[in-house]
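Budget justification aside, the reviewers requested a transparent look at the raw inputs and outputs of the sequence design task funded under Objective 1. We therefore reproduce one unedited record. The lines immediately below are the structure tokens for a 338-residue chain.
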């Protein structure tokens, strides 16, 4: 295998740090498994790489670019100053440097991060989205009449189901007001209230810019949750292993008939392009009992750990983890940033 170019691995740091900070111990922990898995793959690909954790000081990045002069940046930054809403600002900074980087552009991240903008764009193009309303902190909290119960209430600009719990599912105006106010106070951002769609929870991984590849769909299965209870991806349902085991929640490859699988792939490619996504992403959807596919949200630069949905789907499609990282690098190297 030929030696590849110089790669700067850029990721989040929880607190201010130094340019030469040693991440050896952090990379041994479960919380840093994604970064560790990517670095291991880069080593197998014989890349020359250095790492940098970014917290709230872009001058560190400027210094690293001067001293290391990478050919490409492997971008895993999801926040700045512990604010996930600032992710697109770092991507914009990378675009200004004129150095190729992996993952989505700032405009794609911006459109997807704001759940209401993404839904408005897709709804305009006649893609089914839940009925929804945005409730800013500055306005009186009141349920719009068009929005019928049951309703899910989420932070407008978070991801990874952060801020979503069983209390997010509301069936009365009193609970509606209480949950919206909680989002305002806890997250200092608008809340989005949307129609709860009864159906299967599906995730479709995508990669590419001009030529797109959709990976086999994954599904969150709720084996121990009663049929008449709401089933949706709360923070605990995604990340708390004890909770997942207790309620029989697991992620597996979705069993779909051939026509539904083709329909799902076509729709996801259309969504990807309409939201100006490039690099790689995961599209979250609901599949109703009637076979209707409903868009929930799009997640550029999803979690890349070997044992998470995106990488498992890629492996099923013929891209084992090291080849997936190689493909992500190639897409990043060849994507033209306008």
């Amino acid at each position: 295998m030929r030696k590849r170019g110089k790669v700067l691995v850029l990721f989040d740091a929880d607190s201010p740090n130094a340019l030469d900070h040693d991440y050896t111990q952090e990379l041994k922990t479960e919380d840093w498994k994604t970064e560790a898995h990517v670095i291991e793959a880069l080593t197998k690909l014989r890349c020359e790489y250095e790492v940098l954790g970014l917290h709230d000081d872009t001058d560190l990045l400027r210094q690293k670019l001067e001293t290391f002069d990478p050919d490409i940046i492997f971008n895993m930054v999801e926040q700045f100053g512990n604010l996930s809403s600032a992710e697109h600002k770092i991507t914009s900074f990378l675009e200004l440097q004129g150095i190729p980087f992996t993952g989505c552009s700032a405009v794609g991240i911006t459109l997807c991060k704001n759940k209401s903008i993404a839904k408005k764009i897709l709804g305009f193009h006649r893609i089914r989205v839940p009925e929804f309303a945005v409730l800013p902190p500055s306005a009186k909290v009141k349920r719009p009449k068009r929005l019928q119960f049951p309703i899910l209430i989420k932070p407008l600009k978070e991801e990874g189901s952060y801020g979503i719990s069983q209390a997010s599912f509301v069936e009365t105006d009193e609970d509606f007001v209480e949950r919206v106010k909680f989002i305002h106070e806890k997250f200092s951002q608008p809340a989005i209230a949307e129609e709860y769609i009864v159906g299967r929870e599906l995730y479709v991984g995508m990669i590419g810019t001009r030529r797109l590849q959709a990976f086999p769909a994954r599904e969150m299965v709720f084996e121990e949750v009663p049929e008449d209870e709401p089933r949706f991806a709360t923070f605990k349902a995604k990340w708390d292993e004890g909770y997942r085991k207790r309620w029989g929640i697991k992620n597996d490859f979705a069993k779909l008939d051939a026509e539904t699988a083709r329909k799902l792939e076509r729709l996801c490619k259309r969504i990807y392009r309409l939201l100006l996504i490039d690099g790689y992403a995961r599209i979250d959807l609901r599949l109703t009992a009637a076979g209707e596919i409903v868009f929930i949200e799009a997640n550029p630069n999803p979690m890349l750990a070997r044992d998470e949905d995106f990488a498992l789907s890629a492996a099923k499609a013929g891209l084992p983890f090291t080849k997936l990282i190689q493909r992500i690098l190639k897409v990043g190297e060849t994507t033209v940033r306008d």
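The longest strand covers residues 200-208. The chain is about 35% helix and 20% strand. Computational costs for records of this kind are itemized in the attached budget.
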